[in-house]
């Protein structure tokens, strides 16, 4: 039996159990998958549980993607690059860390008919995943990357980290309508990486006029998957833009993790199709 878990706080909203259990059923594997509430400062206790109960692997959500790294015996080069781990495999008495977020997002872009390469990328927000996506875009040879955030110091910190890791410059600015509008003029992909419009979050964008400045063939992406269509995506769709929510990224990053856990090189696109109706 393969034993898996997802940890984070809060964790009750997580779709990870339904995704991973659906995959295990499709692969006809015996499994146990549990969602474990682990608050800040409780990682060491959970690691003891992993070793005592021989848990084969676990997925990680906020707030542990950085803190987990000190407990790992080995970290994949890509995860080191992003300074973020969302997948851990326990094998032969050792903990191995990986990051599947970036490749999960790239898969969702490919499914939408585009890619980072040669594109101008505009990211709204500076949360934890923005550092990962910014670096991924740079290493995938994007034409430019711009990060806008209400707190300029966070956006600037991401730019510094990208320069330190890749040697390449990306730009930053303030997250306000007039700045978004100016940067949107050349954007090929605009990504909402803020929690604005997410289920359970009262705050939302109050002005979507920046979409009137966006290139007509641009892709509008929202990392949020609940609700399925945020007001951000709705306002873009009503203006004729192609839109994609965060569910594709969520599913693909999970499928890549399941490849790591099981060692089975199953087809990612086919598996997504097979489990999608159970997850959405």
User: Tally the helices: what do you get?
Assistant: 10
Low-confidence runs of at least 5 consecutive residues:
none
Order of helices and strands: EHEHEEHEEHEHEHEHEEHEHH
Multimeric status of the protein? single chain
Number of domains: 2
Keywords:
280 residues; alpha/beta; Rossmann fold; 2 domains; 20% strand; globular
How would you characterize this protein structure?
With 280 residues, the chain is an alpha/beta fold. The protein folds into 2 domains: 2-99 and 248-279, 3-Layer(aba) Sandwich (Rossmann fold); 103-244, NAD(P)-binding Rossmann-like Domain (Rossmann fold, 3-Layer(aba) Sandwich). Helix content is 39%, strand content 20%. The protein has 10 helices and 12 strands. It has helices spanning 16-26, 43-53, 77-82, 101-111, 128-139, 152-166, 177-184, 231-238, 247-262, 268-279, and strands at 2-8, 31-37, 57-60, 74-75, 87-91, 94-98, 120-124, 144-149, 171-174, 189-192, 219-222, 242-244. The protein has a 6-stranded mixed β-sheet. A 6-stranded parallel β-sheet has the order 9-8-7-10-11-12, sandwiched between helices. α1 links the parallel β1 (2-8) and β2. The longest helix is centred in the C-terminal third of the chain and has 16 residues, at 247-262. The radius of gyration is 19 Å and the shape is globular. The model has no long low-confidence stretch (mean pLDDT 97).
């Amino acid at each position: 039996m393969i034993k898996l878990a997802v940890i984070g706080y809060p964790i009750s909203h997580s779709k990870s159990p339904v995704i991973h259990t659906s995959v295990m059923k499709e692969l006809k594997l015996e499994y146990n998958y549990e969602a474990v509430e682990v608050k800040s400062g409780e990682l060491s206790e959970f690691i003891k549980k992993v070793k005592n109960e021989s848990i084969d692997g676990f997925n990680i959500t906020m707030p542990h993607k950085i803190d987990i790294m000190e407990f790992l015996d080995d970290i994949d080069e890509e995860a080191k690059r992003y300074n973020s781990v969302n997948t851990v495999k326990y094998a032969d008495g050792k903990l191995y860390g990986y990051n599947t977020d970036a490749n999960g997002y790239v898969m969702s872009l490919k499914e939408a008919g585009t890619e980072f390469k040669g594109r101008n990328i505009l990211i709204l927000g500076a949360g934890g995943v923005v550092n990962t996506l910014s670096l991924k875009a740079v290493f995938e040879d994007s034409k430019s990357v711009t990060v806008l955030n209400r707190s300029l110091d966070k956006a600037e910190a991401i730019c510094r980290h990208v320069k330190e890791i890749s040697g390449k410059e990306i730009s930053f600015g303030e997250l306000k309508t007039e700045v978004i509008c100016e940067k949107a003029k050349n954007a090929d992909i605009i990504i909402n990486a803020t929690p604005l419009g997410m289920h359970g979050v009262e705050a939302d964008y109050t002005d979507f006029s920046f979409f009137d400045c966006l290139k007509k063939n641009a892709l509008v992406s929202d990392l949020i998957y609940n609700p399925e269509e945020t007001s951000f995506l709705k306002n873009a769709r009503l203006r004729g833009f192609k839109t994609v929510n965060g569910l594709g990224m969520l599913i693909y990053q999970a499928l890549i993790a399941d490849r790591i856990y099981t060692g089975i090189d199953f087809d990612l696109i086919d598996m997504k199709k097979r489990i999608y109706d159970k997850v959405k």
